[in-house]
Each structure stands twice: as structure tokens, then as C-alpha cells.
Amino acid sequence: MRRMSMALAVSGVCASGASAHLYFEDIGASGSLSTGWSSVYLANEIRFSFPAATVGDQQLVRMGDAGQVFRAYDHFPGLDLDLGRVIVYGAATGSGTIHVSGNIENVETLASVATFDFTLDSTTTFPFQIEFPLVPITHHVRVNGLVMLSAPDTGGADLARLDEVRYYLRNTVPTPGTAGVLAGAGVWAARRRRRAR
Q1: 178 CB neighbour count, 10 Å cutoff
Q2: CATH number at residue 50
Q3: Residue 102 three-state SS
Q4: Sign of the C-alpha dihedral computed for residues 8, 178, 175 and 46 taken in this order
Q5: To 5 degrees, how large is the angle CA 117–CA 26–CA 82?
Q6: N- to C-terminal Cα separation, the chain
Q7: Distance separating alpha carbons of residues 69 and 147, to the nearest angstrom
Q8: Predicted local distance difference test score (pLDDT) of residue 10
Q9: Residues near 167 by beta carbon (within 8 Å), at least 6 away in sequence
């Protein structure tokens, strides 16, 4: 009875801990509007901020771009990424547009598992988000995103501003088999530690 309780406890810890967070690496930004960029990441989300990404009236430029790149993975084997979400914070008035595009690829095979491509304008409610599946699901991804801002002069109030781009990646919940394997490994390690004493 005691062993079974321990196995269930370890299983719970492994299953909940396994989906707790992703690792983010090789984080970068580029482009004419990326000056002063910064990033911060949470459990399953990375946020890129662009304080200088504004084009249009009373600005020096009427178009520009800001690129984002990073790699993400879950360190637990058997837990893969199955869903992506892009969230854009900003504003557009008049002729202002924010065009967002990108590709998510499997790092091992270099095959694309998802793409996104959309344009936001003065009719868009911000923040705007789009969600898409990763097909096939994968363990380790590289994300390349590009945001292009444009605000041609029409004589009115023309502006496009990008405040932040967020990327959310969902890792799959472990199947009962995977949770069992993780629990078994935990029980085996606990027994081995006990024998070593």
C-alpha cells in the first residue's frame, strides 16, 4: 500500500511538473524598429517589447519592421508542443497597418509545423490574438516572426504602433503511459537511493 501511494505521488509530481514550463533559447530581435527591444518569458509564453516601433504622422518613418526569433522546448521526453498562439499589442489609425507573419519549424527535421500571416488595421480590436495547431506535434521548435508596420500619408491621422508580441506554446498533457513511465522512473530512483543508504 505504501509503495503504491508513493508511485501515485511521484506520478502526480512528474505529470504536473512536466507541463509546468518550457525552456526558451537563442532569443533575438532585428529590424529597423527593434531599437531598445526586450523580452521576458513565463511558463509557456515569451513576450517581445518594442518601445521604438511606431510609424506614421509625427514620426521620422512611415514604414519599418521588427523581427523575433527564438527556440523553445520542454525538457521532459514525451511531452510535445501541439498548439501555438500569437498575441499582438499595439494600435493602428487611418492608413496604419500591422502585418504579422512567421514560421514555426521542428528543430530536428527543419520541417515547418505551423505558419501564420495576418494584417491588422484601424478596425482591429487590440490586443489581437490568433491560435493554430502545430502539425505534427513536436518537441523542439524554432520560431521566426516578422512584424511590418506601415502608415502612408493620407492627410488624416495615420499611425501604426507595435507595443508587444507574445508567443504562447502549449505542451501536451502526458498520456497515462507517459505518466506511468515517469512515475516508474521516480519510484526506481527512490528505491535506489534507499538501497544506497
Answers
A1: 18
A2: 2.60.120
A3: strand
A4: positive
A5: 50
A6: 22
A7: 12
A8: 35
A9: 45, 46, 48, 68, 70, 84, 85, 86, 87, 143, 145
Could you give the CA distance from residue 12 to residue 17 in angstroms, rounded to a whole number? 8
Contact criterion met (CB below 8 Å) for 22 and 44: yes
Domain holding 131, by residue range, is: 20-169
Q: Give domain status of residue 196, yes or no.
A: no
pTM of the model: 0.80
Number of domains in the chain: 1
| Mean pLDDT for all residues in the chain | 85
Residue 189 lies in a domain: no
